[in-house]
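Weekend entry, working from home. Most of the wet-lab plans are on hold until the incubator is repaired, so I used the time to fold the two sequences that have been sitting in the queue since the last round of cloning. Logging both here for the record. First:
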Amino acid sequence: MKTREAVLGWVGLAARLRRRPSLSMEALSRLGAAALERAGAALLPAYLKELLALHAIWATSARDVLLALGFSDNEVAALLEEYESVAGNLRSEIARASLRYPSDFRIEEETQRLLYVLVRARQPQLVVETGVADGMSTRLITEGLTRNQHGLLHSCDVLDDVGALVLNHPTARRLKLHILPWPYGRHLDRLCATLSPVDIFIHDSNHQYHNARYEYEVAWKFLRAGGLLVSDDVDAANAFAHVCKIHHIAPIILVDKRKAVGIATKPK
């Protein structure tokens, strides 16, 4: 699943981030491995090179990630089909709703599939999420927990206008929203200490290096053995790569349309 297409996608993403004209995928596909490496080295910012240097499994779909995590093909197929009915209802609500946050704050389509199916397949008792905005990921997680008939999501943000897609929905019974002061300081650490052990920790708040690195370390401290750290926008800084190196973790990286998601499993 470490596909050449995923690496090519990273080269294209890096070119857009650097505001350079992107080489066409057709042209890149004709390059040999050595030439591809040279092209990547010329285009990629240093923090993306660090991600590419990890011993990661690269995926371009939620299905690939879920199979890499050890779920069976039949289970994944059934839950992805279930997700489509949930997503259809949610898309209809979004079309009718007046939302506060830009659409690019939301997790992307493959990431939506991944979070929903992870919650259904992993059957977590405790999920922690940072960064809510309109609540796309929050809603999908609570939908999964509601179908599981157990488990609770603790979502953290620094603004009190978040969660429009979930707060007035029946699945909010599976949600506890925490408005924390900014900067977090030790507040997130103290909260997680009262909740531990955490089954899944999802970072989608401020992606600048120091905040992301702090949240990853908090997550790693309070995750149960075998628990998952999931981070959106791991292409935004090198914090995820650094934490994986420090803890000797070979992550899975999902390359979505505009950005990338990292998944790291805490060793048992």
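Second, folded right after the first finished:
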Amino acid sequence: MIMVAPDRVLHVCRLGSRLDFREIGAHVVYVGVEGEVTVSWTDRPQERSRVVVVPAYGKHRIAADRQVVKTILIEPETVSDRCLADLSARLACPKGADPLVERLLGHGAVPDEMPGGAFPVISRDGFDLAVFGGALEGRQLDERIEYAMAFIRRRLGDTVLTADCAQEFSLSSSRFRRLFADNTGIPFRRYRMWKRARAYLEQVFEPASLTEIALELGYPDSAHFSRSIRATYGLTPRDMRAKMRGAVYIHCPPSPDGAIGRRDLAEVSPAEKDGAVSGQQLNLTGARAFAAPAAHV
């Protein structure tokens, strides 16, 4: 199962052994459902635990002896540094030492089918509540940077340059790059490249050819596309497609008008709140789900 929500991803699959080193532009939480997972790094000793956190852009390789693994992606520009540090510290605790670890190791954090074949539909805060027990504290961003990020997301297939955004706000290119990095913690070019690669998660089950998808996402050709995806996920686009065949895919797009249903945390049961990092509300928005043509990635 793979759920692609605004600024969050949850992938649950039996993890294979053919993954190469990967460099994902999101904070990654690996949860070994059946046992420990091993993460190898290029610049530090390997780490073996039931729950392993990898910071955004940390180059690593995951091995799990073909067990079921939950992989959670959190876009770093959407969460405060304080919250990310707190989350990482709590997830580093031994099993039983923190309710958040117990929550992730349990099966309740995995969205399941509801009666009638409908799926629980989750926006950013709703995803955080379902998985972590509470909404993660958001990052405060300059409104110009928020506009620039939305502009990039809308035009992934176009070549959006630093100069284009800088001109929009009457800034020099160097000043805009500093402002963007200071706000998000990510260099502008790196952010743009990751969002393009992340968008493939929304296209991986589409019937279009890989060349068509590459061009739609703004890659100059299929060779560049293949290299970028492999560097990001440790698999080529073709291998990702093949290994996800048969998985259930849930896509939760952002509401076009920003309107979302809301349920205050006061209405959520104490059991749902257990292990929360922080939280104020549960947001619900529309989604589409279908069985894709179980995953062994």
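Plan for Monday: verify the second prediction. Residues 143-154 form the longest helix (12 residues).
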